[in-house]
Amino acid sequence: MLATIGVERLEDLFQDVPASFRFPELNLPPALTEMEAFAEMQDLASANESTHDLVCFLGAGAYHHYIPAAVDAILRRGEFLTAYTPYQPEVSQGTLRAIFDYQSLITSLTGMDVSNASHYDGATAAAEAVSLAYANFRGKRTKVVLSPNLHPHYRQTIHTYNHGSAIEITGEQVDIRMGPKALIPLIDENTALVIVQYPDFFGRIYDHTALVEAAHAKGALVSISANPLALGMLKAPGEFGADIVTGEGQPLGIPLTYGGPYLGIFATRTEYVRKMAGRLVGETVDNRGQKAYVLTLTAREQHIRREKATSNICTNQGLMALASAVYLSLLGKHGLRQVSELCYHKAHYAARQISQLEGYELWNSTPFYHEFVVRCPLPVEEINAYLLENGILGGYDLGQDYPELESHVLLAVTEMNSREEIDLLVETLAEVPHE
Amino acid sequence: MLATIGVERLEDLFQDVPASFRFPELNLPPALTEMEAFAEMQDLASANESTHDLVCFLGAGAYHHYIPAAVDAILRRGEFLTAYTPYQPEVSQGTLRAIFDYQSLITSLTGMDVSNASHYDGATAAAEAVSLAYANFRGKRTKVVLSPNLHPHYRQTIHTYNHGSAIEITGEQVDIRMGPKALIPLIDENTALVIVQYPDFFGRIYDHTALVEAAHAKGALVSISANPLALGMLKAPGEFGADIVTGEGQPLGIPLTYGGPYLGIFATRTEYVRKMAGRLVGETVDNRGQKAYVLTLTAREQHIRREKATSNICTNQGLMALASAVYLSLLGKHGLRQVSELCYHKAHYAARQISQLEGYELWNSTPFYHEFVVRCPLPVEEINAYLLENGILGGYDLGQDYPELESHVLLAVTEMNSREEIDLLVETLAEVPHE
Amino acid sequence: MNEPLLCDLSVPGRVGIRYPAPDVPLAELPAGLERQNLPLPEVYEVDVVRHFTRLSQLNHSIDTGFYPLGSCTMKYNPKLNEETARLPGFAHIHPLQPIETVQGSLALMFELQEWLIEIGGFAGVTLQPAAGAQGELTGILIIRAYFESRGETQRVKILVPDSAHGTNPATSAMSGMRVVELKSDLRGNVDLGALQAECDDTLAGLMLTNPNTLGLFDENVEEVIRLVHQAGGLVYGDGANMNALLGIVRPGDLGFDLLHYNLHKTFSTPHGGGGPGSGPVGVAAHLVDYLPAPVVAILEEADDESDLPPLYGLVTPSKSIGRVKAFHGHFGMAVRAYTYMRVHGKEGLRMISEYAVLNANYLLARLRDHYHVPFDRICMHEFVAEGRWPDAPDIHALDVSKRLMDFGFHPPTNYFPLIVHESLMIEPTETESKQVLDAFAEAMIKIAVEAHHQPELLKNAPHNTPVGRLDEVKAAKELVLCCAVGSYTE
Amino acid sequence: MNEPLLCDLSVPGRVGIRYPAPDVPLAELPAGLERQNLPLPEVYEVDVVRHFTRLSQLNHSIDTGFYPLGSCTMKYNPKLNEETARLPGFAHIHPLQPIETVQGSLALMFELQEWLIEIGGFAGVTLQPAAGAQGELTGILIIRAYFESRGETQRVKILVPDSAHGTNPATSAMSGMRVVELKSDLRGNVDLGALQAECDDTLAGLMLTNPNTLGLFDENVEEVIRLVHQAGGLVYGDGANMNALLGIVRPGDLGFDLLHYNLHKTFSTPHGGGGPGSGPVGVAAHLVDYLPAPVVAILEEADDESDLPPLYGLVTPSKSIGRVKAFHGHFGMAVRAYTYMRVHGKEGLRMISEYAVLNANYLLARLRDHYHVPFDRICMHEFVAEGRWPDAPDIHALDVSKRLMDFGFHPPTNYFPLIVHESLMIEPTETESKQVLDAFAEAMIKIAVEAHHQPELLKNAPHNTPVGRLDEVKAAKELVLCCAVGSYTE
Ligand SMILES: Cc1ncc(COP(=O)(O)O)c(C=O)c1O
Ligand SMILES: Cc1ncc(COP(=O)(O)O)c(C=O)c1O
């Protein structure tokens, strides 16, 4: 090969690299063989305690659900796993149709008109909603009303994305005990977007119709960050009149994997599709008269539009979107409702039992989905440490993000938690030493 | 659908079933959902201690080897996993070509002319060798000389298969300390087949040339049951002049799985191919002029020949043959040799170290491969119990099958055993309480 | 379809996986026994993965389409089973581990035995046989041992109906028994007269497939069994067709003395392109002692007081025929089958058979007017039609089969039962939806029309497959059974 | 290619998986908030598995063939990585678990940070960004925060060479910076004159891809960086092309202030049909405090005496720009990339780049006489040819691409770099063998001949793919972006 190229040694190919820095000695360990590497990775993995080992009541944006075996069987298929973004539709109909299926499923689930092919995660999807709204008003509206009840990570991400921009964020100062209506007074003619979460970060479910009406009355858009699994039993955000629905798709068949890769859901109304970030698959025909699918409206995207693109997003979460499409297909109309209700009933059972314990009090006073807040008699850290000793992964310590919620824990219950597990949690909570 | 059929109720379809026994109440538990079943199976599985948890020195016909990740990635492909035997070649070229690859690999490895598409396991493959030989002499030779150094399970299977038939089995009375030459005096003009193992059950490796010559001088055939992984560094049985090579293919990329499914290897000379049991794939062309593959010489098989078939075998070990083909392709010429030698060197290191321990003595005095016999100062059961307490899966207690080898253990060492593990074994053996 | 063979991909020096250097002192290699030449491929991991991935795409499979291959029960194989079988606690245990370390496996095997006992109406089960045919062999060996122990060594005759699968006569012959073929009557049942004629004191047994390979439940099954028993013989059931009978009738209740199950048919373990299977054998009480070794048993009962589970172990029945293979059977298949049974449970098992039979009858009803069905009555889980028409003399069943491939369907079974000419043996299984059945029926009907009006479409079929019809004579005559020797090394 | 959509497969009443009934008392459903209509598919598991299995077969993928898509580094993705990422200890841990319970994960992330620091010559790394583009965003936000903290808020200009990937200008614009395009000189380097002209005190930085998207290592890279630094700006590296530089040169040594890696390119994590990716960012010492939160750090050093390992934890850098997403980045991709690095090690990493560059130059050498290569010098891991000939005026790069499909190859990248007309951006990667490269070269050469003599073969290509060329205008005009509402429920 070197002869064909016309050089003598491999090193000759690197003449353009400044000689003084060429071929640095890397201070790295030597190669392992496959069997050695596998053994090392097994050791690392078993240095973790997984949700297979622990009884999990931790949620706060990532949830422990059952993943049907068929999901991974599809994800492992090399044809899906090792393909690139389907730029060449003639040899990518598999991915394209799967995305089209995904788009169809997400629009159905959210009650919206269109869904993109995915965003990175729930946080960045929420942040992209701001960009859409800002672009929609061509920068003429600069205010975003952000509910304090949106996941703290999502809010932080929105702040990061918009730091130093013209956008001014307000709303987080509102009393968290209030529902979405508390945001209404903040919406004005300069408001581009209102962002709420459904169920909110504390698990509470509110009807957002009035909020949407109020926002629309001022000409503002509303984006709802929803848990897609909750939508199996709860009114679709589309029914509230939301303009944008975002969400974290992890509950739909995606393993916890210490936080990622997950799936950013992004759906909106037809009128905003050209302002939307991310890929979109559309239906068309080929030159043989067959139905076929292709990336469309690419003129929004960075590879065509460059600095005028709606977003810089390129690689997104294709395989995770596929996972959720397989998951939603398997569960379907009945299964999703069933799982959604299982979470609901079990969470309510747990909440009821815990609220009867001395020293523990249910903070939520309004309807909630599968997460709820409990005021504890001790710092959450201490309680969680005791739970962990007993093989239980306790809830999220809300004091980290909300000073007013010190000693409040956010507990999540899913279909994975049997009644025995819930009872164990309750008993163990009752036993926490009050020293 | 019932209307199309013309019955009213589903039960009407079962009128031919005697009413008194129809629709019995089965005394079985109710259905579990997928998530419940998975949890139950996880519980069962974790009630076992696996070779991931224990340091394994147990062999005796099934070995703990590294399985490259690519093997299972191929085996999981639904197109291989959920196809039937390739009776319809036009829609089965995947399986057919993979088997052809397998046949090619096995003939290369064994040094034979042809390989079938697989047999159930090492034991039944050895038993089928008897049938081949018997058929070859049209029942005119009735004696089989069976080395006592063949795996006890294989010998038992041969006995089971031939119980009550005209075949008379001899040879097992020979002193196990002797090599294959001890069998030569037993071979006569009535001998159809001589069966030996290579490396033998005690791990010993012998040159079988003289035995084969002696057998051939009497007109008898010789079948060698070989460990295919050992053939990575050892002379191929074909080079000894063997007429049949059988073997257990498990070491070639097949997980231990508590004993099965494994892979029966069966290879022979061209002249015996029509007497051979099992499926065979041959090369041909299709009506478009393409090279193509098809099951051939089916006139030997039960579905054509019925009671005159060479064997009753139908379903064999297709997927396991595929596993071994992927394994052999990945390792190839260099890798197989390397693994084979790793086992050899590590076993010899272990044997040397153990033989220096007080009370332990190496029984093998001739060359051995990756297994060896150690005389122990205590009953093997006691030693193994102590090893197990220390996380080590000890060797096979030979006293079970060979009374003369009471307190003798058969230890296997593979590439999976690091020097530290071997040293741990040696130290632990040294410590076994001699109460 | 230009995927080369592995041997053509090989390039000296390549390797698909690396191994560590020895961490121990090297031992001397055995003089004179060292291998000089190892002609294996030299390829990279990517070559191997691409090769086999591409090959896989040349297959029809259940995962890609309908597979109504009669007698093979090509039902969908749930993905859950593949996960449970791969749990490290199942996949990575050695068959000779001390029983204390494998109680999970033994418990599973014990439970599976119990399920099969209950489903079949038997008293004992062995999980050892590797496949249906080996189950048959086990059964015949048990029959022989039974008569031997009773001193009735003259009983060497095994009756096999002419509709039987090839393994039945092959097995009997292999076990040194004398095979006598029994003809079927006009309704597809065993011909009682012919049976009676063979009922003498040399009779060892009858191998009966019920429902038989025509998909018909023998209307005289009780009488058939009575006759055999009366003559002192035993009745062996070929349980390949158990998919019709789960929760419908227990063969043991009907009087079957023993029967093999095919876990790879009835209980959804995947066929793997030709195995591995698993062929457990169930036996009535009088045969339990003859089961091959080992069988899983409870060695120490559970102790509820101290909350101790039972201790399971491996035992050898007192008059065991011995081993039929190494170790304890296809445990990996047992895991899959057990998972499947747990997911279906008592009610689910019956539904499996009900829907299997419903689907077959539905297809039969849809095809009856287009294909001749020689034994046309309510069928069980499958039925046999003929792929020939008096007014389309050139067309054979095989042509229909090949043409079906063009519609994306796997053909029915063609080579048996031999008693039907040009047979198309169709078994839809319960996992197919009405949509699929309808699409298949429509293709079949279209083909029946084509057979009359465009016969060349069938004769030249398939058209849309990776390869066309093969020259099978050339394959058998020229016998190329592997890559040329040395082809891996240039 | 008649695979229906999911919505067309739906039949009321079906379900692909069952769930247990509640084992707790039912709670009242929330009044007025209950869902009335859930229009999702109703199908069986077999339908789902078949649907997606069949769909998968319509894809070209690395596992089925050569994929020389320039700038995407479509190298083979070792199967080992898929196994390690699925180990329950990695796949089933919650991102918010107490750090004591996830020391394995944190150790892995810490080590991966260290490897990336060493490979790139940086002082710190964040694993948080989800993909390359988000890495860029992170980088630009860091640059802005850096200048902000120094009071240099007037620095809002980001220079982007005209050869840059679209994400570079898009990112800069998205972060509210002013994008100025820099032209390339005749050898494909940054035009030093043009650069100098922009070096003023509004300069925030330069986004430089090196090797650039022509596959060329900028011959003046040190001077380019010197100029930017001298003007007070920072140099951001788009590390999408790091596959050329592992062990060859460390961007940090050259003076890059920060750079993103694409684990899904350089470090073999699979592309998944469009993600997930992972875009860690490495930064020089002066930018470490600005990294997004959290970063993995050692909270308590290892204690060798008592044989205690270090305690790893998550920390927020002092001047952190904040979070760029929820939780800690794409940990699953980190596992795969780390596995890959461990398997390659120090020597192996350099070999990756050497072979990637060798393969690209070999292909370049083989194609040079048949395709015009506008910047023809020794390339790095990829090169750009033109898919046009003066004497074949109707042929475009896209025609060459489509025709390549007929030979079983994925086409090169077409849509960029924009500075080459009709660009064919070819990146073979190091995992392809000479055989594959030769077969590809021969197909390319054949197509070049066809372009002149049978242009219609190219214009009408592809011929052998599941679908032919698509009507993209119709797709954009009629905008059918999902199944019709309610199509899941008849
Ligand atoms: C009726 C019948 N009996 C026996 C067998 C043999 O079973 P196996 O292939 O598992 O050996 C089959 C297999 O097709 C069959 O259909
Ligand atoms: C040069 C270059 N920069 C940036 C990117 C964007 O990376 P990602 O797709 O991971 O967001 C790409 C991806 O193709 C690229 O090629």
* N- to C-terminal distance of chain C: 24 Å
Mean pLDDT of chain C: 95
Oligomeric state, counting identical vs distinct chains = heterotetramer
N→C terminal distance of chain A:
75 Å
Number of strands of chain A: 15
- Give the largest interface: A-D, 195 and 203 residues
Strand arrangement, major sheet of chain C: 1-7-6-5-4-2-3
Structural class of chain A: alpha/beta
The major pleated sheet of chain C works out as: 7 strands, mixed
Q: Provide the structure class of chain C.
A: alpha/beta
Describe this structure in words.
The complex is a heterotetramer, with two copies of chain A (435 residues) and two copies of chain C (490 residues). By secondary structure, chain A is an alpha/beta fold. Helices cover 34% and strands 14% of the residues of chain A. Chain A contains 13 helices and 15 strands. In chain A, strands 2-8-7-6-5-3-4 form a seven-stranded mixed β-sheet, sandwiched between helices. A four-stranded antiparallel β-sheet of chain A has the order 11-12-15-14, with helices on one face. In chain A, strands 1-13 form a two-stranded parallel sheet. In chain A, helix 3 runs antiparallel to helix 11 (318-355) and helix 5 packs parallel to helix 11 (318-355). Chain A is globular, with a radius of gyration of 24 Å. Chain C is of the alpha/beta class and 490 residues long. Helix content of chain C is 35%, strand content 11%. In chain C, strands 1-7-6-5-4-2-3 form a seven-stranded mixed β-sheet, sandwiched between helices. In chain C, helix 5 runs parallel beside helix 11. Chains in contact: A-B, A-C, A-D, B-C, B-D, C-D. Chains A and D meet through helix 1, helix 2, helix 3, helix 4 and helix 5 of A and helix 2, helix 3, helix 4, helix 5 and helix 6 of D. The site of one pyridoxal-5'-phosphate has 14 residues of chain C, from helix 6.
